[in-house]
Amino acid sequence: MPAKPAAAPAADAPPRAPGSGESQVQRALKKLGLVRDIDFALYLPMRYEDETRVVRLVDTRDGETVQVEGVVTDCEVVFRPRRQLIATLDDGSDTVQLRFFNFYPSQQKQLAPGARVRVRGEIKGGFVGRTIMHPTVKAAGTPLPLALTPIYSTIAGLAQPVLRRAVQAGLARAPLHAIVPNPMMPEGAWGLREALSFLHYPAPDVAVATLEDHSHPAWQRLKAEELLAQQLSQLQARRERAAQRAPALQAAVDAGSLHAQLLGVLPFQPTGAQQRADREIALDLARIQPMHRLLQGDVGSGKTLVAALAAARCIDAGFQCALMAPTEILASQHFGKLVGWLDPLLAARGLRVAWLTGSQKKKERDAMEAIVESGEAALVVGTHAVISEKVRFRRLALAIVDEQHRFGVAQRLALRGKAGGIAAGPPLGDAAPSGGSDPQSGGAWGSMALEPHLLMMSATPIPRTLAMSYYADLDVSTLDELPPGRTPVVTKLVAEHRRDEVIERIRGQLAQGRQVYWVCPLIEESEAVDLRNATATRDELAEHLGDAVRVGLLHSRMPTAEKQSVMADFTAGTLHVLVSTTVIEVGVDVPNASLMVIEHAERFGLSQLHQLRGRVGRGAAASACVLLYATGDSGRVGEAARARLKAMVETGDGFEIARRDLEIRGPGEFLGARQSGAPLLRFADLSTDLLLLDWARELAPRLLDRHPELARQHVDRWLGTKAEYLKA
Ligand code: ADP
Ligand code: MG
């Protein structure tokens, strides 16, 4: 093991509170995720300062950050143009002015004429002479450090020197022995302790840019270890899942089955892609391991039907199915569609579709919960009310989650927990595994808790690199074919000052009997202001379009009943134009709508724009999407916004959109990092570290098989509490 670097000064005592209470510092550290010694060791600087050298003033250039040492020749407080402390420093080669607008009496004392000091700061030229604003000041002659000084990202209440000492202490104490033997690491990788010590306290001759962009070889070790931990935890989750049990749903799909009857009543033929996904799901459902499948398909590709077919298979096997959507509007659209398709068929079986949402009246809700519990509700559709504690399923065996990335981990876990009811339900009959014994539990089948099968749906396709790494634990079905008869949506960029032409265009669409969406963005922090903006737009359109045209408004703040009635009017065609904030973002389906106007399109995210555009082009009519953009004060649209708008005009393909989005934003968003509160990859970057990812993917199964204890320790070191998250 390499020795501790000479450059790192001795570790101070850790900042622990005396007595039992947690100090303010500890609380702040915890907020940064710094608890275990290893957490500190892995908390790397965001940048560095070079305090290793003192230079001569004559040798410095304006704009440089410098450290100089000399005698204070003059120091005074002046009041014009405002109160400030001005000192003059002479280092024998030249002089420089030191200025402070805010200063303590102690600083003034430190800079008393005659004092020998070392100062550090950015030197600037100017007509009053060369100046350093707010330099840091130390006594001259203090020993110079041998390494660059790390600057860590910190939060209020945690001063940099305090954090630095804490990291140093953690680094010194952390057990940094190689868990995975060095020879297994990628060739040329540094030792872990060596790499970490270097990254906290690099030698002054390093090219700092390679530290900051993570291309320095010391980074390779961290990236490799992190990716390995991530692969191991995925693999582990996959194996655990394989050991779990779910009811095998393998009812015969004969003419009398719900599945066959549903296909019989559809007004259209399922696409080839829908049929393929349905078959893939059927195979999963028939197994005794819980399905863990993502159904990904561009907006409008017909995921709802695939969900309905899966539900039918589940019901045919004598079990219940739950479908959960992130918003009430979306859930109610699903409900409407599924009731239409399935309720008449279910009625003949004494079953029905139930509806559960948070805004429901208590009486209705109680009634719905009762039929969920009795099992009369074969299919339960709703928002996350579906997983509230009070809801008890009789025999839940399939959970379908639409727009899965919009749900938190906790919610997905809760849904899995709902299957507890299965074991308590009536005899499992032909759902029991043929072998009957389970090597993992060592017990009887009846004593095992069962998990429901899980089908997740998303219109945001996972980029291939992420599918291989983060979602290695997930099976994926892809709807790569749109239902026939769709015309591609023409996308146009229009500057805000041509708004009138857009309104003309709306008139044209309405004249053909079509309908129009107009989406207003979130502009202000306050919803009230947004509502005012959207209301103003509605009034403006109503005025321009005349009395014969009905313009409606949909906003997230409206009461649910009102929202639903507006949506119902728009679906029925009695509303012609729907002005909305982004509440219509996901899933709504009104095939007669042929024009989508998005105001301030530059403010929207790329996948959000793509989703919104997907609301049109659902019928046979040629459809268009107008992206109205406004330039900022600079008269230009920002670079990232420009890239997003360009992508929208250039492609309608959801996979290409996802690829570009990844390029523009980085992978964080796809991983639900916002929900977890912490980015999942701190060191590696999937857009640049694919070779290391390959290495990790190859090593992970061997390591897990041959050295399971090392694998466990490795995951624990690198992911700690996050490992649980990765399994969800
Ligand atoms: P998404 O994948 O975006 O959730 P939907 O399930 O809402 O898409 O389907 C979009 C529209 O296409 C709906 O009106 C749906 O009824 C219709 N649809 C689905 N499958 C087909 C098909 N095979 N042929 C024709 N229309 C279809
Ligand atoms: Mg949908």
Describe the protein in words:
- It is built from 25 helices and 21 strands.
- The chain has a seven-stranded parallel beta sheet, with helices on both faces.
- It is 38% helix and 16% strand.
- Helix 12 links the parallel strand 11 and strand 12.
- It has 728 residues and is of the alpha/beta class.
- The chain has four domains: 10-49 and 148-213, no CATH class; 57-139, OB fold (Dihydrolipoamide Acetyltransferase, E2P) (Beta Barrel), CATH 2.40.50.140; 258-479, P-loop containing nucleotide triphosphate hydrolases (Rossmann fold), CATH 3.40.50.300; 489-651, P-loop containing nucleotide triphosphate hydrolases (Rossmann fold, 3-Layer(aba) Sandwich).
Can you identify the CATH superfamily of the largest domain? Answer: P-loop containing nucleotide triphosphate hydrolases
Shape: globular
Oligomer: single chain
- From the alpha-carbon coordinates, what is the Rg to the nearest angstrom? 31 Å
Number of strands: 21
What is the strand arrangement across the widest sheet? Answer: 11-12-10-13-14-9-15
Provide the structure class.
alpha/beta
Bound molecules: adenosine-5'-diphosphate, magnesium ion
The CATH architecture classification of the largest domain is 3-Layer(aba) Sandwich
Please tell me the total number of domains.
Answer: 4
Main sheet: strands, sense, barrel: 7 strands, parallel
Number of helices: 25
Strand portion: 15-25%
The CATH topology assignment of the largest domain is Rossmann fold
Q: Report the helical percentage.
A: 25-40%
Residue-averaged pLDDT: 83
Poorly predicted regions are: 1-18, 423-447, 668-679, 723-728
Q: What top-tier CATH class of the largest domain fits best?
A: Alpha Beta
- The separation of the N and C termini measures 36 Å
